[in-house]
Amino acid sequence: MARTTEKLDEKIRARNIRIILDVATDVFSRKGFDGARIAEIAELANLPKANIYYYFSSKEDIYSTIITNLIAGWDDALSKLRVDQDPADALRQYVRAKLVYARENPRESRLFASEIIQGARFLSKKDRAHMRAATDRYVAVLDQWMQEGRMRKIDARHFFIMLWGATQFYSDFEPLACDALHRNSLSEQDYDSAVDTIVSSIVSGVIPVAQPNR
Amino acid sequence: MARTTEKLDEKIRARNIRIILDVATDVFSRKGFDGARIAEIAELANLPKANIYYYFSSKEDIYSTIITNLIAGWDDALSKLRVDQDPADALRQYVRAKLVYARENPRESRLFASEIIQGARFLSKKDRAHMRAATDRYVAVLDQWMQEGRMRKIDARHFFIMLWGATQFYSDFEPLACDALHRNSLSEQDYDSAVDTIVSSIVSGVIPVAQPNR
DNA sequence: GTCTATAGGTAGATAGAC
DNA sequence: GTCTATCTACCTATAGAC
Predict the structure, then answer these.
(1) Whether B119 and B175 share a structural domain
(2) Mutation for testing the B interface, residue in A162, A163, A174, A193 having most B CBs under 10 Å
(3) What's this model's pTM, rounded to 2 decimal places?
């Protein structure tokens, strides 16, 4: 009997926590940390406000939980660049993976963008170190390719910033992307075009090589 | 006498409005519209809270004024792409102008980014139409270059989104850029490296052309 | 034009009944 | 575990003295 109750409680608890984190992601992404209201989260979760405080100790507790979760999610979502891959193929896979993640997780992407714009106040040192380490690994792969002559020598760190900015724009600044593309909303084809444009631009360049008959 | 008083009043008014808009840009950029507090704006402006409401009718009034002002500022800041320029030179100038603007106006840049992330609720139709028209003019220049064979055929709209994302990252997501570059803050040299990496990547591509002896 | 005082409402968080 | 009622603090905005 006790076991049944415990199991049921665990189910209710897990379910409520999941719902709270889900709607909180929505509210935080639309309002930022300071602008978000616990009352709105409670309303969207169909729970009394006090119930939120039964599962989480504070507003910051909910927020930090979401951030740590989404950073963990990135590692799985982003295909790993490996030194033995073809650089052009690998870059295409990386850009595609970033755009797919952005398209499938727009709220998480915007919440994180909002957190950074507002000064990265709740991004823990651990999470930042984790991200720096991931960047360093990617940079090492590109540096290796450059050493082997399989890639032109550029600054790999700035290069990754360029890829991040180019890909995140579609989810974080969607209204601007829609305006620029004359769309009401972005379709899967638009995302495919984004991959093609980004990859073909950075792989081959946009300026034709001068004719040899000069 | 009346004239002197009027002049003095105008000076005080102009000065106070300027100060309010200045500190409000800071607060809105750090907290977003909903998170910003009039009390904080008043405190930073060294004015009583009620004084803010003497110059502006509401929180939204201050916010909208800032947004319209900063959009007007862009037209001057961004060097115009002209069809008769050399494409590579023109793209370098454009990227540089965007990065210089981002570096010199980080608060405006972040406030605007925050507004878009939070759904572009206060971006007027007029301002959006204005931005779309500017984009269309830039796109027309690139399309012309492509028709003349001076530029590879890519989607000009996605291409501009790539440039916007790549350049805005440095001001809007500065903490991430600092982490990626292993810096405490970004120097002018870092911005120069950003221009070089972005421009050389998109102009020539990062993958060497295959040797002709295949 | 300036600013104190305050209205009227809502925020995050908690006490305690069930 | 759940939720009503409520605390204290703070919010936007205004009234009205100077």
Answers:
(1) yes
(2) A162
(3) 0.93
